[in-house]
## 1
Amino acid sequence: MGKRVVVVGVPGVGKTTVVGEAVRLLRGAGREAEVAVFGTFMLEEASKMGVGHRDDMRRLPIEAQRELQSRAAKMIARIPAEVVFVDTHAFIRTPSGLWPGLPRHVLEELQPHLFVVVEAAPDEILSRRSRDAGRRRDLVDARGVEEELSMTRAFIAAASVLTGAPTLTVMNREGRAGEAAQRIVEAIGGL
């Protein structure tokens, strides 16, 4: 099994862009790297239940979400690449409260080698969210984004304790995703 690098960040932080840059850097160095967007795997399974949009999954009953998480984790764990980036969220906002994006059963399937928390300034995150018309996000202000960042750190700290995998935090400043990606590639080299 290859290395599993779980990359999390709040919506609009630019984690998908950073992951794409890290994959490009690794492939440029002759390494095999793939991206598994956890929500896409979940949506593939949820579509069998009649769910048509990824943002509607978080409104499903918790047990249905748990089952979707399990199925997605099992599929991702079978990806044979040297480095697999798991692009996901540390938590999901549901009508019942914050649901862990990486509960124990998911962590046991994925067996991560590294957690990466992608962060950015709250004003940058809000700006990016405003430009993403394809998503149905909850409206929050800068204070709400700061709370989301704080909760992400807390959820990932718990996941790190459960797995023993280290956690790296990188800043994705506007127009500088390559720098964050380079830091991630350097960390992978040390695993």
Note: The helical segments are 15-28, 38-46, 62-77, 104-110, 122-131, 142-163, 177-189.
## 2
Amino acid sequence: MSELYDLYKRLGNADYGQAIGRIAPYFATIDPQFVALEPGYCEIVLRYTRAVQNHLGGIHAIAICNAAELVAGLATDVSIPARHRWIPVAMQVEYLAQARTDLHVSAHGRALDWSVLGRIAMPVQAVAIGGQKVLTGEITMQIAEKKV
């Protein structure tokens, strides 16, 4: 089992976001609130706070991308075989609307073949309260054998 998944199982949703922020400090800038983490899927809430707003009063696009990379990375980490490692190598996103509410940001990789090596594109999305999609995209992960 992934060390990050093991940590999630021990801490639960309430404390996992702070733990991830200590492991990878940049993710602490968005204060992720975890909803779910399981093989092929991760979901967080990105809260609509002053800390993540842009000059127009919406959630900054890069804060949403930060959240998307977080969920894609964690969904990848808990999905790949223990003998593999991963790193994000590309991100393609489309901004569909301003975000002026909390967002549910999720990665959807249940249909992906996690046993392969090479590049895997993880679908991501951000949905506002009320159901409006504000971002869709893919984060491409490079999957390789762990170095011994």
Note: The first helix runs from residue 3 to 11.
## 3
Amino acid sequence: MASKLKTDILETVSGSGTIALTNQLSGMTGASMPSGSVVQVVNATVVANQTSTSTSFVQYSALTASITPTSTSNKILVMFVGEIVHRVTGAANSHFRGQIYRGSSAVSSVVNERIYDYGGSGIHHEMQLVMHHLDTPATTSTTTYSLYFANTAGANSDVRNGTITLTEIKG
């Protein structure tokens, strides 16, 4: 059973005054929030395709998101969702690799996706890539995150139609 308390006036413990409840949350800052609270959320979405044959990691340059943390002790939850495509021709192996970067530095573990063309006629494989990483940038400077990917085997790999969400969490 839910309870509801309604009142017009709250009096201080000492009885020396009253407490106005109107707009009490408007003065709340990131510093006054409890640990684990969401401080801010940044989101970016793009409908763009990028193809790569590089065996080294390259940035999915159509999609980046930047956030300015409010405290060096806060964490950033990075979430990427997008589509990947990789291709195999003639009894070959295809290996897609994805990783979240902060600026030009890798911060997440590598996600691997492999396919093999046993029949020798080629494969065009499409799937959704979902990655999450909880980062500790230890800065209050603007910080940029993006997806990097590599095609370490096979004809080529694509990343397309992505969304990246950055959530600052109070440390």
Note: The mean pLDDT is 87.
